[in-house]
């Protein structure tokens, strides 16, 4: 699974469990409607959705309050993590490896075209992109986290 897919899977409920059965979960009415219907639950295929899915397609499937979920995780975490501003802290909060190598792989996955040696700029871009992708795929994300 992709790094973005791992992030989604830890934030969106049931993302891993639904992934293999996503096409069967939505009964197709015809070949023309099967693809959009199957693509609706964006949490099931976050990598594909992040790269190819039109904005708003997931909002009918399941709206997840990202702020509430992450605040809940933060309340249970012994570390004080600034997930609202830091991709490193966001990845740590959801239990992922936040090494530079992982973040560079995430940057490749999301199409970062900047200098990966400028980690501050890359990290800020990554955080905004992850928040934006969550919003595009069924997450309710505060607007200030995507600016």
Model description:
- The protein is mostly helical and 147 residues long.
- The chain has one domain (1-147).
- Helices cover 54% and strands 3% of the residues.
- Strands 1-2 form a two-stranded parallel sheet.
- Helix 8 crosses helix 9 (119-136).
- The longest helix has 18 residues, at 119-136.
- The radius of gyration is 15 Å and the shape is globular.
- The protein starts with a helix and ends in a 7-residue tail after the last strand.
SSE arrangement:
Blueprint: H1 3-11, H2 15-18, H3 22-25, H4 31-39, H5 46-52, E1 64-65, H6 66-76, H7 87-93, H8 100-110, H9 119-136, E2 139-140
Parallel strand pairs: 1-2
Q: Can you write the helix and strand succession as a string?
A: HHHHHEHHHHE
Q: Approximately what portion of the residues adopt beta-strand conformation?
A: under 5%
The biggest sheet amounts to: 2 strands, parallel
Structural class: mainly alpha
Count of discrete alpha- or pi-helical segments spanning 4 or more residues: 9
Query: Unreliable segments (pLDDT under 50, ≥5 consecutive)?
Result: 16-61
Which geometry do the CA atoms define? globular
Query: What radius of gyration results from the CA coordinates?
Result: 15 Å
Please give the order of strands in the largest beta sheet.
1-2
The average pLDDT is 76
Biased composition (Low complexity): 14-24, 31-59
Organism: Ramlibacter alkalitolerans
Domain DUF3597: 3-142
Region (Disordered): 14-59
């Amino acid at each position: 699974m992709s790094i973005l897919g791992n992030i989604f899977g830890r934030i969106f409920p049931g993302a891993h469990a639904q992934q293999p059965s996503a096409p069967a979960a939505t009964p197709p009415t015809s070949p023309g409607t099967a693809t959009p219907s199957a693509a609706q639950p964006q949490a099931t295929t976050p990598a594909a959705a992040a790269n190819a899915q039109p904005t708003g397609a997931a909002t009918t499937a399941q709206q997840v309050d990202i702020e509430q979920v992450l605040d809940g995780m933060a309340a249970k975490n012994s570390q004080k993590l600034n997930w609202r501003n830091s991709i490193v802290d966001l990845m740590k909060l959801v239990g992922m490896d936040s090494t530079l190598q992982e973040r560079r792989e995430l940057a490749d996955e999301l199409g970062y075209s900047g200098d990966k040696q400028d980690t501050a700029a890359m990290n800020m871009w990554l955080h905004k992109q992850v928040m934006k992708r969550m919003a595009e795929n069924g997450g309710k994300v505060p607007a200030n986290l995507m600016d």
